[in-house]
């Protein structure tokens, strides 16, 4: 406890940097008891003004009870004693309600009032009895607007966001509660099959949008900053979250790097941005969030399932490759990009833990492989515009078989590029003309 | 001015004294799920509201008839015997009789869905019906005679008249019994009125085990409402002082006379609605008209314009809660201006709104088992539950506000309603609700409500010990007592019976003021149910006067 340093701290902050220091911000900064902090403020105020009058201005808190007669000057005691009147017998419900024993009783009103140094004596006269007076804050000049003090409070919360109130509250003089229940990492998984296990798996698939989300979150958090408790838990997960920000990040990066190469990098960027204290304070809560996430948030994140950057592994390559070939067949140059997205997404799915049943595309592609001898048949999806029974035009994608033959076996990933460019270079390779393609291919 | 030793505690040089940590008294808490609606898929809105009136009447008719029998059996006027009539339509002209039914009040300024639809059809601007603008009163002051009071049951309606009605205040949805005769006009001349009166009151610690030997330390329940956080910095000074106080930073050693109520004795904070300021919801209607509407159209691509959403109020509420929660358990009720459904009963504000405070929530329910109430408990509005053994029944104030619109202000206050008369009227209304045994009588008539099918939760099965209404203009409290149990005969089987303790039910009524306007925190003693007020604010000194 740096009790001896308080003069230095106050001199730096109040006199040099001309900031407002409240007893709570002092108590947090020096990790001292709030009563002690009040005394420090008083002492500093006293000694500085003895050296040089009016160098430091104080704001006091007065607590006590108000005088029964309201002084006109007192804005805060507007209806301090209105509760004392005895209720007359009911004008509204009277005789229908037997036994009308409504009785008003004397209600004691205590007041907690914030008072400027100059008004202290005035304010004192409005109190009937004063139970305590203490210095709430010190600032170099008279505060025009007391609401500035809320900014000090907010700033304090930002600066000390990582400190766990459950651990440090005792030092600050906060009332302790032995029964407090805070959820730790091991919350029972909600009924639907383990969304928590989906979350980490899904993350890579969304790294871009979720990064943006993260960023906006941190932006928001720059402003108000509540205490952001670093969790101390007894669970197995706790070891991870009690480590400070950096190790946690690394671990996360490792976990996900197999899925998403971009992720760790982005993370680093984020932490180095001048989001500064806000972002940093948000960081340690990161792992917590993962653990504590509610089901609803998981859902929210699934709103951004498309992102093709980081689909990974060989499965992806080969799948893409097949998709490419399909594309070639179907010759849908325009919306190729969109389709690619889909491909990336579907290829992502096998890597998630509980996968949905494989899509139909799989089947038809399986069929395509069977052409071991350059020739064969495969199933492709074709778009057909039909008129349905009610006379509406409906575009249907339906599988149909077509024969093909090729020079090469399924090309390796490197071949992908040419495969893409091929259909572009050759105009009018219409779907359903696979046999013509095969004719060219044969040469 | 009395010189106080308090000055010596803080206005001195730093001491080397070690401070013993103070510990908050534990809170015994057992909320009821009376107002929780079935989850998503099982929540239907196709039902007719008529069922609610039917259920209410079925539930309360035996109770009110029991009282009426007690009072009116053998009642004679001019040799004529008062006869009991089963149904409203069975009333015969010129015959002295009594009958029970539901009050319905036809008032000219009451919102009328048919009128709304007509307006919408003619203006053709929107194809949905928005909430009607709130009115101060439903009574048309220029034509007070347009107000008709009727008694209805499943058979029909009977118009009530008589001077008796002027001395009694009624509201739609109340179940009463009336004694009188039908006159030549077909109206029922009321001679006397009976209400169900207070329901059975559970004894303290009925649902919980009383903790042993707690009498040494007195506890308090803190009630606050209308925090009105709008996210701007200018309003939160009182909130900050409130936080300081609840966390135990304010004030001095509790032993001294005249000092603040000891914060460590406060075992629970109940926030009765409107934690967020009204200005955040005023944005919504603005979107429908003119320029903002166009802007909305441009962003139609994603259907949601994130730039129109201001997160700071809820973020601040979250940080306020998260700061308090390490020290004090909180029960949070939604209110009119909070992000919850609008129709009563309002369902809990979802914990996803509170990224920090939700660490103190109970775990999401797994399967059918009933989860333990959380340290931070986001509950319904209205809400019913046991705190420190006492039964609490509270609402964020919509119920009182709405019944107040049925009252006739023109008579007594000359339109000047924000006086003692208003606060008085509000307490009277709260008393009337208890005696009607209906916490929200005007739902579903003039308060939006979920169409209950199988039960009417607004009927009070039991009488609470503390009955509070949030977001009232003024703090006011009163104690009411029911009849002594001797007069409650065993016929009232369904709603309870004779209390073994043989003491009349006593209820503490509290109307909680808006904190944002008054800076007042209400403390209810857990032993005596006495009420105290702690007021937070800044002294208006020379700077303000300039």
From TrEMBL, chain A:
<dbReference type="InterPro" id="IPR041913">
    <property type="entry name" value="POLD3_sf"/>
</dbReference>
<dbReference type="Pfam" id="PF09507">
    <property type="entry name" value="CDC27"/>
</dbReference>
<protein>
    <recommendedName>
        <fullName>DNA polymerase delta subunit 3</fullName>
    </recommendedName>
</protein>
<dbReference type="InterPro" id="IPR019038">
    <property type="entry name" value="POLD3"/>
</dbReference>
<feature type="compositionally biased region" description="Acidic residues">
    <location>
        <begin position="290"/>
        <end position="304"/>
    </location>
</feature>
<keyword id="KW-0539">Nucleus</keyword>
<feature type="compositionally biased region" description="Basic and acidic residues">
    <location>
        <begin position="314"/>
        <end position="330"/>
    </location>
</feature>
<feature type="compositionally biased region" description="Basic residues">
    <location>
        <begin position="371"/>
        <end position="385"/>
    </location>
</feature>
<keyword id="KW-0235">DNA replication</keyword>
<feature type="compositionally biased region" description="Acidic residues">
    <location>
        <begin position="331"/>
        <end position="342"/>
    </location>
</feature>
<feature type="compositionally biased region" description="Polar residues">
    <location>
        <begin position="230"/>
        <end position="240"/>
    </location>
</feature>
<feature type="compositionally biased region" description="Basic and acidic residues">
    <location>
        <begin position="214"/>
        <end position="225"/>
    </location>
</feature>
<feature type="region of interest" description="Disordered">
    <location>
        <begin position="181"/>
        <end position="443"/>
    </location>
</feature>
Automatic annotation (TrEMBL), chain B:
<dbReference type="InterPro" id="IPR007185">
    <property type="entry name" value="DNA_pol_a/d/e_bsu"/>
</dbReference>
<dbReference type="InterPro" id="IPR041863">
    <property type="entry name" value="PolD2_C"/>
</dbReference>
<protein>
    <submittedName>
        <fullName>DNA polymerase alpha/epsilon subunit B-domain-containing protein</fullName>
    </submittedName>
</protein>
<comment type="similarity">
    <text>Belongs to the DNA polymerase delta/II small subunit family.</text>
</comment>
<dbReference type="InterPro" id="IPR040663">
    <property type="entry name" value="DNA_pol_D_N"/>
</dbReference>
<feature type="domain" description="DNA polymerase alpha/delta/epsilon subunit B">
    <location>
        <begin position="221"/>
        <end position="476"/>
    </location>
</feature>
<keyword id="KW-0539">Nucleus</keyword>
<feature type="domain" description="DNA polymerase delta subunit OB-fold">
    <location>
        <begin position="48"/>
        <end position="193"/>
    </location>
</feature>
<dbReference type="Pfam" id="PF04042">
    <property type="entry name" value="DNA_pol_E_B"/>
</dbReference>
<dbReference type="Pfam" id="PF18018">
    <property type="entry name" value="DNA_pol_D_N"/>
</dbReference>
<keyword id="KW-0235">DNA replication</keyword>
<dbReference type="InterPro" id="IPR024826">
    <property type="entry name" value="DNA_pol_delta/II_ssu"/>
</dbReference>
């Amino acid at each position: 406890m740096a009790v001896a340093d308080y003069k230095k701290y106050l001199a730096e902050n109040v006199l040099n940097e001309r900031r407002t220091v409240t007893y709570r911000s002092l108590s947090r900064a020096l990790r001292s008891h709030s009563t002690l902090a009040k005394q420090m403020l008083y002492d500093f105020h006293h000694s500085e003004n003895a050296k040089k009058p009016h160098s430091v201005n104080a704001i006091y808190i007065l607590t006590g009870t108000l005088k029964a007669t309201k002084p006109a000057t007192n804005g805060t005691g507007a209806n301090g004693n209105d509760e004392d009147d005895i209720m007359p017998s009911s004008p509204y419900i009277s005789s229908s309600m037997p036994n009308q024993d409504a009785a008003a009783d004397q209600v004691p009103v205590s007041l907690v009032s914030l008072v400027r140094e100059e008004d202290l004596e005035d304010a004192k006269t409005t109190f009937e009895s004063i139970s305590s007076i203490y210095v709430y804050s010190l600032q170099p000049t008279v505060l025009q607007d007391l609401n500035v003090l809320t900014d000090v409070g907010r700033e304090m919360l930002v600066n000390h966001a990582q400190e766990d109130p459950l651990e440090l509250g005792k030092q600050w003089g906060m009332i302790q509660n032995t029964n407090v229940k805070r959820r730790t990492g091991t919350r029972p998984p909600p009924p639907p099959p383990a969304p928590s296990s989906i979350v980490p798996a899904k993350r890579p698939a969304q790294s871009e949008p979720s990064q943006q989300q993260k960023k906006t979150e941190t932006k928001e958090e720059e402003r108000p900053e509540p205490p952001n408790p670093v969790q101390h838990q007894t669970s197995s997960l706790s070891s991870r979250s009690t480590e400070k920000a950096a190790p946690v990040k690394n671990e996360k990066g490792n976990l996900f790097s197999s899925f998403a190469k971009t992720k760790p990098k982005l993370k680093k960027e984020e932490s180095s941005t001048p989001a500064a204290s806000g972002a940093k304070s948000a960081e340690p809560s990161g792992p917590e969030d993962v653990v504590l996430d509610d089901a609803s948030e998981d859902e929210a994140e699934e709103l951004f399932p498309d992102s093709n950057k980081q689909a990974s592994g060989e499965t992806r390559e080969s799948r893409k490759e097949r998709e490419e070939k399909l594309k070639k067949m179907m010759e849908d140059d325009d919306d190729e990009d969109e389709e690619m997205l889909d491909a990336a997404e579907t290829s992502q799915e096998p890597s998630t833990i509980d996968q949905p049943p494989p899509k139909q595309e799989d089947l038809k592609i399986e069929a395509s492989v069977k052409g071991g001898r350059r020739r064969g048949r495969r199933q492709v999806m074709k778009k057909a515009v039909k008129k349905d029974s009610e006379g509406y035009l409906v575009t249907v994608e339906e599988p149909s078989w077509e024969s093909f033959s090729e020079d090469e076996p399924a090309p390796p990933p490197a071949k992908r590029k040419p495969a893409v460019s091929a259909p572009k270079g050759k105009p009018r390779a219409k779907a359903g003309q696979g046999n013509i393609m095969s004719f060219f291919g044969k040469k | 001015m009395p010189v106080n030793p308090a000055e010596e505690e803080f206005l001195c040089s730093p001491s080397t004294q070690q401070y013993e940590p103070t510990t908050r008294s534990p809170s015994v808490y057992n909320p009821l799920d009376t107002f929780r609606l079935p989850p998503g898929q099982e929540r239907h809105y196709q039902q007719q509201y008529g069922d609610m009136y039917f259920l209410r009447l079925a539930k309360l008719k035996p109770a009110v008839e029991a009282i009426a029998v007690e009072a009116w059996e053998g009642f004679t006027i001019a040799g004529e015997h008062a006869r009991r009539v089963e149904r409203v339509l069975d009333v015969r002209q010129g015959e002295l009789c009594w009958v029970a039914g539901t009050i319905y009040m036809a008032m000219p300024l009451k919102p009328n869905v048919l009128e709304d639809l007509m307006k919408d059809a003619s203006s053709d601007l929107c194809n949905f019906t928005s909430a009607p603008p709130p009115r101060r009163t439903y009574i048309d002051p220029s034509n007070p005679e347009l107000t008709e009071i009727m008694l209805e049951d499943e058979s029909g309606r009977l118009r009530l008249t008589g001077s008796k009605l002027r001395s009694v205040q009624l509201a739609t949805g109340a179940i009463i019994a009336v004694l009188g005769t039908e006159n030549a006009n077909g109206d029922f001349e009321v001679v006397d009125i009976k209400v169900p009166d207070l329901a059975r009151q559970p004894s303290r610690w009925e649902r919980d085990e009383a903790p042993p030997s707690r009498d040494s330390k007195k506890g308090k329940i803190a009630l606050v409402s209308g925090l009105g956080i709008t996210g701007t910095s200018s309003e939160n000074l009182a909130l900050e002082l409130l936080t300081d106080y609840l966390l135990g930073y304010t004030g001095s050693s509790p032993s001294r006379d005249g000092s603040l109520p000891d914060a460590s004795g406060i075992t629970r904070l109940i926030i009765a609605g409107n934690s967020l300021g009204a200005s955040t919801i005023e944005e919504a209607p603005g979107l429908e008209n003119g320029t903002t509407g166009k802007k909305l159209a441009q962003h139609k691509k994603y259907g949601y314009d994130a730039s129109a959403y201001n997160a700071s109020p809820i973020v601040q509420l979250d940080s306020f809660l998260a700061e308090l929660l390490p020290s004090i358990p909180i029960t949070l009720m939604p209110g009119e201006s909070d992000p919850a459904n609008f129709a009563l009963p309002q369902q809990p504000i979802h914990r996803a709104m509170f990224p920090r405070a939700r660490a103190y929530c109970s775990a999401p329910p797994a399967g059918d088992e009933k989860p333990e109430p959380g340290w931070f408990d986001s509950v319904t509005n209205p809400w019913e539950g046991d705190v420190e053994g006492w039964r609490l029944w509270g609402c964020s104030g919509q119920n009182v506000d709405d019944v107040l619109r049925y009252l006739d202000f023109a008579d007594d206050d000359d339109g000047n309603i924000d006086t003692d008369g208003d606060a008085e009227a509000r307490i009277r209304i709260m008393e009337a609700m208890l005696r009607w045994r209906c916490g929200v009588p005007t739902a579903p008539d003039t308060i939006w409500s979920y169409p209950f099918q199988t039960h009417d939760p607004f009927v009070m099965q039991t009488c609470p010990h503390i009955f509070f209404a949030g977001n009232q203009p003024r703090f006011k409290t009163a104690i009411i007592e029911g009849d002594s149990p001797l007069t409650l005969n065993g016929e009232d089987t369904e709603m309870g019976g004779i209390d073994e303790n043989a003491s009349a039910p006593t209820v503490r009524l509290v109307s909680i003021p808006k904190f944002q306007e008054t800076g007042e925190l209400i403390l209810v003693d857990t032993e005596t149910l006495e009420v105290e007020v702690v007021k937070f604010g800044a002294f208006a000194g020379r700077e303000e006067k300039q």
